Amino acid sequence: MPFIFVAGDHARNDVDVEWRAILEDEGYSVATIIEGLGQITQIQDIYIRHIYDAIESPIVDAAQQKAEFISNNFLPNPIINVWVWIFIVIFALEVLNY
């Protein structure tokens, strides 16, 4: 079952026609409901809640956040970094058949 937020031409043409034919050719009984998830009130409520959360959240600098994460979590030990680079070089040479 594909989850589509808006059931437009793709749902009607591809899912309802092509996928239905494929499944019916395999012997399955198919019933399609061409409605998007966006038509469900509970899903709409989730989207609205996410919008409010985004509005109320502080603005963050994604680049700064990424740099902090990398510096704090990605191989902080320089000795390990050397061994990782050695492994990468050896692996690359093997792949390239040097």
Q: List how many beta strands DSSP finds.
A: 0
Task: State the end-to-end CA separation.
Answer: 48 Å
What kind of oligomer do you see? single chain
Low-confidence stretches: none
Sketch the topology as an H/E string, one letter per element: HHHH
Number of domains: 2
Structural class: mainly alpha
Characterization of the model:
The two termini are 48 Å apart. The longest helix has 18 residues, at 78-95. The protein has helices spanning 9-25, 41-56, 62-73, 78-95. It is an all-alpha fold and 98 residues long. It has 4 helices and no strands. The mean pLDDT is 82. It has 2 domains: 9-56, no CATH class; 62-95, no CATH class.
Secondary structure blueprint with pairings:
Elements: H1 9-25, H2 41-56, H3 62-73, H4 78-95
Concise account of the structure shown:
With 98 residues, this protein is an all-alpha fold. The protein contains 4 helices and no strands.
Characteristics:
single chain, 98 residues, mainly alpha, 4 helices, 64% helix, 0% strand
